[in-house]
Amino acid sequence: ALNKEEFAVTGMTCAACATRIEKGLSKLNGVFSANVNLALETATVTYNEKDITPREMMQKVKDLGYEMTKKE
Ligand code: 9UX
């Protein structure tokens, strides 16, 4: 089933950072859409829980040089 999760993101300093994270997350198998808000420092990801976990998404963002953590 599709799941939607909101994360907190730190380390972004420009609009291109947000775009990089969106593109990086979108490329992951199982991610349906990724939306990053630079001002609010959030990422909202819609994904198929059969194919990917939040943990894998957080690791991907770490690899890109930012920090993403679960919000709730
Ligand atoms: Mo521009 Mo944001 O190099 O890191 S993408 S500041």
Secondary structure elements and pairings:
Blueprint: E1 2-10, H1 15-27, E2 31-37, E3 42-48, H2 54-63, E4 67-70
Antiparallel strand pairs: 1-3, 1-4, 2-3
Function: Involved in copper export.
Subcellular location: Cell membrane
Family: Belongs to the cation transport ATPase (P-type) (TC 3.A.3) family. Type IB subfamily.
Describe this structure in words.
The two termini are 20 Å apart. The mean pLDDT is 97. A four-stranded antiparallel β-sheet has the order 2-3-1-4, with helices on one face. The radius of gyration is 11 Å and the shape is globular. The protein contains two helices and four strands, in the order E-H-E-E-H-E. The chain has a domain at 2-51: Alpha-Beta Plaits, CATH 3.30.70. Strand 2 (31-37) and strand 3 form a beta hairpin. With 72 residues, it is an alpha+beta fold.
Strand content: 35-45%
What is the percent of helical residues? 25-40%
Cα shape: globular
Per the CATH scheme, the topology name of the domain at 2-51 is Alpha-Beta Plaits
Q: What's the CATH C level of the domain at 2-51? A: Alpha Beta
C-alpha Rg, in Å?
Answer: 11 Å
SS class: alpha+beta
**Main sheet attributes: strand count, strand direction, barrel closure:** 4 strands, antiparallel
* Unreliable runs: none
Proper CATH architecture of the domain at 2-51: 2-Layer Sandwich
- How many alpha or pi helices? 2
Instruction: Give the neighbour order of strands across the main sheet.
Output: 2-3-1-4
Mean pLDDT: 97
Secondary-structure element series: EHEEHE
Q: Give the termini distance in whole angstroms.
A: 20 Å
**Number of separate strands:** 4
Protein name: Copper-exporting P-type ATPase
Function: Involved in copper export.
Family: Belongs to the cation transport ATPase (P-type) (TC 3.A.3) family. Type IB subfamily.
Subcellular location: Cell membrane
